[in-house]
Design a protein that fits this description.
The protein is about 60% helix and about 0% strand. It has about 325 residues and is mostly helical. Helix 9 packs across helix 12. The longest helix has about 55 residues. It is elongated, with a radius of gyration of 28 Å.
Length: about 325
């Protein structure tokens, strides 16, 4: 791809960024360059101030270009990874419907989705559950009546719940946005949280759907910098360790999560809380930025630092 530029910017009068008014570069005015007018001394003082500020301005420009390059690569790679994750995820759904029983917490998850009646479910109803019919291997041209007849063969109430969850999963899968890994989208967070709770082995980029990375953290990781969130995570980890130490003094040991059968809904509550926190000032406010271009550092900040360090050079 051709990259256009000026071979002699001085000859053509093109100015560098932050050059003083009437100048094309940042070199000091020479003694042979006369000042004109009664305000010559004031202009000279202003020019000296501009020249003094120029290095910092140029450094800021370089930093902005480096950050933009890191984000482009991050979006591009993770877009490729999320695209590649669709096939194995849908293959897992096709295996899920073969189960005899649904995972614990399924009824509460389903009730909440039906109560909300989100876009994903309405879209699936309008399309006669196209993805569900495909994953059930119903013939091409099958109808919602064929799907209903298939579900009617469920031998037990538990199997009927599996079908119900499968239909809900398919509705949410079919409407899953390519950008769900990047922005805090509540429906996508609930869907991926429920999949993981049901045993789906989510990849790193799919786990970003549950807890998106901020662009600031990605940039800091690539440049080897520390962010306030790093310090907060360290503090939280220390506090969590204290809680674990206190919790293991009982000979009976800590209770296993999900003993009450509500681990699916508990995870969804956490995802919803994260979504609301992000919307206050996180990546959810950047939806207008580069939706279609894509880049992508690995989900792991340490891996991002190794892979994208070249962006800073």
């Amino acid at each position: 791809m051709a990259v256009y530029g000026c071979a002699d910017f001085r000859a053509h009068g093109h100015a560098l960024s932050h050059a003083p008014d009437g100048r094309v570069d940042l070199t000091p005015r020479t003694a042979s360059t006369p000042d004109t007018g009664d305000s010559g001394s004031a202009d000279a003082a202003g020019e000296e101030s501009d020249l003094a500020a120029a290095p910092a301005a140029l450094a800021a420009d370089d930093r902005a270009r480096t950050e933009a390059r890191i984000i482009r690569r991050w979006v591009r790679k993770n877009n490729e990874l999320i695209d590649a994750s669709e096939k194995p995820r849908r293959a897992w759904l096709a295996e899920f419907v073969l189960r005899k029983t649904a995972p614990k917490g399924a009824q509460l998850f389903l009730a909440r989705q039906k109560a909300h009646g989100g876009y994903e479910l309405r879209r699936a109803f309008n399309q006669n559950h196209a993805l569900a019919r495909q994953l059930l291997d119903l013939p091409v041209g099958s109808t919602v009546t064929d799907l209903s007849d298939k579900i009617a063969t469920a031998p037990t109430p538990a199997k009927a719940t599996v079908y119900d969850m499968f239909l809900t999963f398919c509705a949410m899968e079919d409407a899953l946005s390519r950008n769900a890994w990047r922005y805090a989208l509540q429906a996508a967070q609930e869907y991926m949280t429920a999949l993981v709770g049901a045993g789906y082995p989510a990849s790193d980029v799919e786990r970003l759907i549950i807890t998106p990375q901020s662009e600031r953290d990605v940039i800091a990781a690539a440049l080897g910098e520390t962010t306030p969130s790093d310090a907060a995570n360290d503090t939280a980890a220390e506090q969590h360790g204290d809680v674990l130490d206190a919790g293991t003094t009982d000979d009976s040991g800590p209770a296993e999560p999900g003993d009450d059968g509500s681990h699916l809904s508990a995870g969804i509550n956490d995802a919803t809380h994260d979504c609301q926190s992000e919307s206050a000032g996180g990546p959810g406010n950047n939806v207008a930025m580069e939706l279609s271009e894509g880049t992508g550092a690995p989900a792991d900040p340490d891996a991002a630092a190794a892979e994208l360090a070249g962006a800073a050079s």
